[in-house]
Design brief:
It is a single-pass membrane protein. One of its GO terms (cellular component) is external side of plasma membrane. This protein is an all-beta fold and 176 residues long. The protein has two domains: 88 residues, Immunoglobulin-like (Sandwich); 76 residues, Immunoglobulins (Immunoglobulin-like). The protein contains no helices and 15 strands. The two termini are 33 Å apart.
């Protein structure tokens, strides 16, 4: 989320036509097209955040600016050349890194929250805790994970929450 993404087409010379067919999971389909004989590009129902990376005759890559969850879906590039037809298919999955917060509850126990991540984050503790995380799903397909530190020893001074996620790992320490 928030980064730019570039999807490439099969590189070929003698391009006659290039079409990007985009079928997001949410919302309607869109298409970008290029015809070499007319040196003409066309777009149907595509947002301004989707466009040719360079020029379609030189490099028919698709650039998605400021990727959002709504960009998830199927992307197909079809290239027609004098040598034949070629295609490349993508299934775009958008990762959302969670926001990590670590605090102390009213009883003086550490509480770790990995908010609004996609997919759900995994939470672990140092020293080890036998806590069970609670997951809360949101309408935008993100998940908030909450974990309360529980340990047999009550004289701990420093506790570290480790959040593991496909978009990157994070950790914070606290003394309650």
């Amino acid at each position: 989320v928030g980064n730019d993404s570039v999807l490439t087409c099969p590189p070929n010379s003698n391009v006659t036509m290039v079409t990007w067919k985009i079928m997001p999971k949410v919302g309607g389909a869109c298409a970008l097209g290029y015809r070499a004989d007319q040196n003409k590009t066309d777009r149907t129902n595509c947002s301004d955040s989707m466009n040719w990376k360079f020029t379609p005759d030189c490099n028919p890559a698709l650039e998605i600016q400021q990727v959002e969850i709504t960009h998830e879906g199927k992307y197909i590039c079809e290239v027609v050349t004098t040598d034949g037809n070629f295609d490349k298919k993508y299934h775009l999955i958008v990762l959302v890194p969670p926001r990590l917060t670590l605090s102390c509850d009213v009883e003086g126990n550490p509480v770790c929250e990995a908010a609004a991540g996609k997919p759900a984050a995994q939470i672990s503790w140092v020293p080890e805790s036998n806590s069970s995380p609670e997951n809360k799903s949101h309408d935008n397909e993100t998940v908030t994970v909450l974990s309360r530190f529980t340990a047999e020893s009550t004289n701990l001074t420093n506790t570290t929450c480790i959040v593991s996620h496909l978009a990157g790992n994070q950790s914070k320490s606290i003394t309650c």
